[in-house]
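## retry 2 of 3
previous attempt timed out at serialization; input unchanged, resubmitting
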Amino acid sequence: MLGSRNTGVVRCTFKGASDPAKQQIAYSSSISKEGGLQALHGIRALACIAIVLGHCMFALGYAWPQRHTEWYHALEQHSWMLALVNLAEPAMDTLLILSGFLAANSLLPAMQGKGAALPAVRQYYSKRMQRMLPSYYSVLALVYAAFLPILGLQNVRAPEAQQAISTLWFNEGDGCPDKLWANFLFVNNNMRRAGCMKYAWSQAVQMQFYLLCPLLMLCLRPAAQKGLERRLAKASGVIIAAVTAYRAVIALDFQLPVPVFGPLDDPEALDLMTRTLKVSYYSLLPRLTHLAFGMLGACAVRSPGTTYFVRSRKRMTGGLSTLAAALLCATLLSNRYGPEPVEGHPLNSPAAKVIGVAGVTGLLQPAALTLLVCCAVLGVSRRVTRALAWTGWRRMADVSYEMYLIHPMVMYAVWTVLPPSAWFDVQKPSALAFLAVSAIVMWCSVGLAKVHHRIWSRLLQR
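## retry succeeded, writing output
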């Protein structure tokens, strides 16, 4: 449970103020820090929905590999397709930011107390393991024992579904099923193209972060037990700066546009994709930016000074939030895909690559997402915060982890019953048909995720 809906009062003291009335300013809000944390349920649920929609569109790009040139042309002609192809990336960034935010927000109170910090760290590890391992390992067992054998059978009814799901996530050339052991050890994100069950790279990144975050905070914990938030904020800033510099360096080796949807039989194109994704997407290092932004956001919302500044300047903060949302929308319409790299492409200049990879994708995009998360928690717009705190979002957020793990398998089942060739034409794509089928995938995933979550909750008495 993230928090309650009690009304909170925050008092900020300004030392040295000439006006006695300004020495102590108290303000109340209908949504306290704890109540504002309920908005994170809505953010998590919406991010998970966006991932399912984005993955549905992305997977369609692999359904007909011989028509990859038509797919690239369709992305140029239909902005809604391009936006959906790009949608999963900022949604995944949001989940990582929430991981950093919640980790810092749960550990900081215990670390700043007078008692020993180690019991709090042990409790944190225990809760994380109980939440992740049973669900994840049971899905891995299901993949190995049932789904991969089924996927290996010839799908006469919907061969494009088999082609899309196996190529994108369960490719034999990437180690399915031989390298599935790496998923059990949470090192699959360091394998070639993230190994088998490729979308589980994020589980490895999160587990690696959950193991390291408490150790970082123990190292930063001062002897006086005060000032940990400030130290963590500074450390997060250093991490963000270092990873941004790393992104700027690796960006110079990128070749654009990226042939992500094919040709799949070109060894050079596959090697290019392998190198690009390994250094910039799947591994922990490039993802530390998002996790650090999450920790920085937690430090910000826990600071009375920051809270007062944001809430007392709602018009300015609202304007910044609007700019952040506009930036995110603009990134969805950025087309960096093509059948082969072009030397004279406008995105292929060194300056454009550094700005795009390090400045926009690596810095501005997670900063914008973090700003929106903090504004939701602090209740800059009470209507938005209340909408995100809706009980229905919480129900979906509670099973979002299981939903993420099973949605590709659900997608394969739905696409077998409703073959993509029956409702999607690359030359004349229908947004309505796509959304209808994707909604079926999403709600089936939610239903099965609830069953999965309920079983483990009863077994573990959570």
